Amino acid sequence: MAADDEKFYEDFEVGDSFVTAARTITETDIVMHAMHSGDWQPHHTDEEFAKTQPFKRRIAHGNCTFVISTGLIFRSQGRPNPNIMAYGYNKIRYPAPVFAGDTIKVEVKIIDKQVHPKHPDHGLLTQSETTTNQRGETVAYVEHVLYAKRRSSSS
User: Fold this and answer.
1) Rounded to whole angstroms, how far apart are CA atoms 103 and 51?
2) Cβ(124)–Cβ(117) under 8 Å?
3) Structural domain boundaries of the chain?
4) Which of 113, 123, 153, 155 is the most exposed, fewest CB within 10 Å of its CB?
5) Is residue 50 a contact partner of residue 58, using CB atoms and an 8 Å limit?
6) Would the pTM of this model clear 0.85, i.e. be above it?
7) Per-residue pLDDT at 16 exceeds 50
8) pLDDT category of residue 67 using cuts at 50, 70 and 90
9) How many CB atoms lie within 10 A of CB 146?
10) What's the pLDDT at 6?
């Protein structure tokens, strides 16, 4: 039996949107991401090297920003929804750097919706995920495709 707050494909409409809570990126986030990913590039982890680069200080990994943004989205949605899972990403861009001390939030908007061509019991929802910092600058943009169970298939 499905919980009352579980959503299906039919519960989403193009144009639906929400904004997540905000979260500050910490030095620990950057170091832990380097440890987990193995990405010790000096522009993330070497302060003296970073001073010689365009941003003049260390920057968070793009994927670190992406992962934290994803977590903000899941946290905003409450409990897990077993009817929806990631299908893939059409676009990921990092147009501005994120530094330790920056506070980010994500605006999520459904931009496309279609029944899956090979699995009609599921649909594909595409949502834009625009992550901004405390100055309103876009620091990440993602088009995330979700594989969503159709309500008609659950009967």
Assistant:
1) 22
2) no
3) 13-153
4) 155
5) yes
6) yes
7) yes
8) very high
9) 21
10) 86
Q: State mean pLDDT over 137-155.
A: 89
Give the whole-angstrom CA distance, residue 121 versus residue 72: 28
What lies within 8 Å, CB to CB, of 9 at 6+ separation is 83, 113, 115, 122, 123, 125, 148, 149, 150, 151
Of 152 and 67, the one with more pLDDT: 67
pLDDT at residue 78 tops 90: no
Question: Which strand (E) or helix (H) includes residue 7?
Answer: none
The tokens of 155 are what? Answer: 């009967």
| 106 close to 10: Cβ distance less than 8 angstroms | no
- The residue written with tokens 């997540």 in the block is 20
Q: With H, G, I as helix, E, B as strand and everything else as coil, classify residue 149.
A: strand
Strand partners, 50: none
Can you name the CATH fold of 13-153?
A: Thiol Ester Dehydrase; Chain A (3.10.129)
pLDDT value for 84:
93
